[in-house]
Each structure stands twice: as structure tokens, then as C-alpha cells.
Amino acid sequence: MADLIITQPIKQTNKFTETLSTEHIKQIKNNNSTLVLIPNLTFMGYFPQAKLFETDSQPLKVGDKALFTYHDTIIEYFFEQGFDRDSIYSKVMDPFLLDREFVIEYMKEQLEIFKDREKDVDIKMIDELERRVFTEVTFHSFNHPKISLLKSLAQKILKYLDIQDLNVKSPETDESLPFQSQPVYPAVFRALNINPNLESKFYINKLAWSDTFSFRGYIEMYFNALLLNRKKIHHEAN
What is the pTM of this model? Predict the structure, then answer.
């Protein structure tokens, strides 16, 4: 067993094996091993449109590719109302689509969820999130933090281990595991008073589709996935 183990909390009921769980690691580590629990950097605050799929439901597919691992509830709402692609794009791009008060309150709720989730870890990041999330976008997607946030986490780990050299060097890039990125809606940028970066390219799910998409391309792909899913349900029903 290693002298130092750094891990996020992992449930015994995780989808892989109980052997990976935090409780199992605690049981088998030797007395000289140091176990450091770090938080799972997941934050939904920038993405009020996103809702995770239930564990027993299937991701939205385009062809045989499970492209979307979450619901975009705003696109789905307008889709169910009968709006076409162009109309949905116009709706989503409206900076007044969501009330500022709603966005700020949602961000605060998600900070509380994050704070509760890290109550049993050794390294806490809630102070970093509270300090930064209202002035900058610190996540590529709800579960993919940017390099700047990972650097802060690394500094906290070094401090916890009493390692004096806290000069953490980060790569000359803003990307970190760019397998998935989500567009931040213009209404969220407006609510946070942050200049929108609407020219960004997104990996909807690089594990399923290696291409990047524009904001419009993201909306069109989601619309297509909904359309294909509706046709599939109609076909199976008949």
C-alpha cells in the first residue's frame, strides 16, 4: 500500500467495484499510510438549464453515440412547445431569458450543495468557489473544473501535507480533461455581470464525438437528438 493516498470520497455502491470505495481503502491501508480526502469538484451553478439523467435512464443519442449525459431543460421546454431550431437558438441567446435574481439564487443553492458534499473531506474548496464563482467561470462543465481551480486545489493539498514549496506550476492552457464542456447561457453571463464568451468551442462529449461545436452547433445537435429520440419512441410505440 502506498505511503500517501489522495482520493475523492467514493461510495461502496459506485458503478465499478466496492474495492475502489473509500471505506475499503481505509480498511486495507497500513498504519503508516496517509489518506487525504479531496472534494469532488462538481458544481451546477453556471448551468441552471442542466439536469442530470436518472441512473436508470439513457443519455440522449445521435446515431449510436450517447452524446448528452444531461438534460438541457430549456431547449427541451421550447422543443416541446413546437419551436424550431432557429427559434430555440434565438430564445437561448436572449440575455434576459432568465431573471438575474433566479440565477444568483440558483448559484447560492448550488454552493450550499457543494459545501454539504465536502463536509467529510480533508481539503475543502468551498472558500475558493464562494470567492470566485460570481466573478468568473471556473468550470468547463458541471464536473470539469478549469486549470485555475485545480491549481488552487493542488496548493491546498501541499499546504495540508506541510510541503513548503507552494509554487504550483500549471500548464499554459485553460483546458483540463476537455472531454466535456457546456455552454454558459448569455442570461447567466448577464446575471453575473461577466463579459460573455460566445465564440467558444465545446466538446459536448469527446468520448462519444471528437468534434468541437459552436454555441449554435450545440443547440442544433441537442435539437437533433431530441428529434431522433421522439421518432424512436414513436416507432417503438407502433
Answer: 0.85
Between vectors from CA 34 to CA 30 and to CA 36, what angle results, nearest 5°? 130
Grid cell, residue 205, equals 462529449
Local structure of residue 45 (DSSP, 8 states): T
CB atoms within 10 A of CB 214: 14
Return the pLDDT at 134.
95
Contact criterion met (CB below 8 Å) for 192 and 134: yes
CA–CA distance, 98 with 38 (Å, rounded to integer) = 33
Cα 52–chain centre separation: 10
Q: For 40-88, how does the pLDDT look when each residue is reduced to its tens digit (9 = 90+)?
A: 999 999 999 998 866 555 667 666 666 777 889 999 999 999 999 999 9
Cα–Cα distance, 110 to 128 (Å, whole number)? 14
> Any long-range contacts for 166-172 (C-beta under 8 Å, 24+ apart)?
171/147
- Alpha carbon distances (Å) from 188 to 74, 106, 202: 13, 10, 17
Q: H-type helices in 66-144, by residue range?
A: 73-80, 85-92, 100-117, 126-132
